[in-house]
Each structure stands twice: as structure tokens, then as C-alpha cells.
Amino acid sequence: MALAEFVPEIWSGRVLTRLNVASVYRNVCTTEYEGEISQFGDVVRINEIGRINVNSYTDGTTNWLTIQTLADASKRLEINRQYYTAFHLDDVTGAQTKPKLMMAYMDQSAKDLAAEEDEYLSTLYSDAGTIVTGTSAAGTAVASTNVMKYLSLAQQALDESNTPTEGRWIVVPPWFAQKMSLANIALNTDNKDTMGSGYLGSTFYGFNVYMSNNVYHTTPASNGEAAILCGYTGSIAVANQISSMQQLPATTMGFNTIVKMLHVYGAKVIRPNNLAVLWCDYTAEAT
Q: In the chain, N or C terminus with fewer CB closer than 10 Å?
């Protein structure tokens, strides 16, 4: 395929697909509202059912029944984040090389856009309804000798908040995954596609375990206090689109074609009671 045959709509779909594959946090969120957005500023109304009051009843009563006025439990998912990539491709490049370069650039764009989105999703710890252990100022020291304990406490916290058991997940940083490995927790899968998305295995204490370098840490160093999120697929809603993708000739850059794309998305914790955070601190293993 020569560059002249490049169709933005087709490549836009490829980038969005690759972006989805490259994401970690995105893979544990619900994306059911994604088809309702097209551009920055869109708002998706998420309808939810509030609690229904249960009242006692006495046979033969002449009192009026208490009629409940239902509260509006809907939430708004705002598409309020937008990021772009833009690059130019040398038109002098050989016809056979051009499509390969384009594919490589598109894949790299998808990875970089996914990394930005993942970093943002990791900061939603502030909306978690439950803190399992530690604080942002003093994370709980985790080593291979106690890592199982805190995974168990995370499971307990979700159980006590009536979080559905199906689709439960936890996203851990590499150092936490190492502690799990040292504790002889088997984390493996035969599915190579999911391995590429940070999936380590299932199910330990009912969790599908994912690993990400984008887990939020209070300091840039990977051994700072880490906000390890856990929940189920309905805890967080995310929706994104490649809202614009264009190719155009460069006017001042010689024989080049500019390719640019705009990624828009939004995310919201829609069930905070079913999202928990463990503030954990890296502890060196005893030698």
C-alpha cells in the first residue's frame, strides 16, 4: 500500500484497536458507553438505579403506604481530555518501505497515547471508596512474607462492599508482582495476547492480576508509596475515540507528508464503593 492509498478512517481504527491492546487500566474498566461519543466535550449520561426502600407491612392496616420518590442516581461521564500526535513521513521513501513505516509509526503512536491514558487512569485512586491499608504519606511495607496478607485484605474489603466477584481485578507495579512471585504465587497464562496487555494471571484471591509501570507512586522512584487499585469491571467507566486523523502535504518541509491524530477520552469512577486502594511501600527482601 503506497502512502497515497492511506485512508485516515482505516488507520484511525487501527490506532484505536492498538491503543486498546496497549492499555492496562483501560482493560479493567467498562467501555460500554464508548459508542456514544465522537468528540471532545461530549457528555455521556450513565443511568443507574438507586436504592429502593423496604418497609414493614401489617395486615388490615388502614394507613397509607409510604410511596418513595426515586432519587436521580445517574452520573455524567465527560469527555474532557484530548491529546495528539503529529509526525511527518518522507515521501521519497520507497513504495515498499512506506507502508511498513506507517504501520510502525501508528503502532508507536497508539502505545504512547495508551501510556498517557493509563497514567491518568491510575490517578483515580482518589475516588476509591475504600482504603485497604496505608496512606499516601506512609504506605504499608510489603515484602514477600506479607504480600498474601494484603491481597487477602483487599479481597475482604471488596467482599464487604458487595462488589461482584465476576471480573475482579488488581493492577500492581512490577516490584509488587515480584513480591508475589517470591511468595510462590503462580502468575502465568497461555494467552499471549493478554500477556501483552499486562495480564499476569488469574485468579488469586479472586483477582485477575495485571501489572503496569503506570501505577501511581508518590515519588518518581518506583519504590515510593504506590496506590494499588482493585475493583471489578463496573467500578470505572472509560470512553475514548480517535476523533480526528488527517494526512496533508507539508509546505515547508521538502518532500514530506504530515500525519496527525487527536485522541479524546474521559473516565469516571462510577461505583466508588466497589473500588479500593492499597497504599503500599516497597521493602527490600532480607538477605
A: C
Residue 236 phi, psi dihedral angles, 5° rounding: -125, 135
Cis previous bond, 62, omega within 30? no
Which cell goes with 28?
Answer: 479493567
Query: Same structural domain for residues 161 and 43?
Result: no
Q: Which three cell numbers stand for residue 263?
A: 485522541
Q: What are phi and psi of 202, to 5 degrees?
A: -150, 165
- Distance between CA atoms of 103 and 90, rounded to whole angstroms? 14
Q: What is the domain extent for residue 115? A: 3-49+71-122+238-267
Each residue of 44-65: pLDDT tens digit? Answer: 888 776 778 888 878 877 778 8
* Shared-domain flag, residues 112 and 13: yes
The amino acid occupying position 43 is: V
Distance of alpha carbon 6 from its chain centroid, rounded? 30
Report how far residue 144's alpha carbon sits from residue 286's, in angstroms, rounded to the nearest whole number.
Answer: 10
Of 199, 192, 172, nearest to 183 (Cα)? 172
Q: Could you report the per-residue pLDDT of 77-100, keeping only the tens digit for each?
A: 888 999 888 887 776 555 556 677
Specify the pTM.
0.79
User: Same domain for 219 and 254?
Assistant: no
Whether 207 is covered by a domain: the verdict is yes
Give whichever of 52-56, 73-77, 110-114, 135-139 has the largest mean pLDDT: 135-139
- Residue 34 pLDDT > 80: no
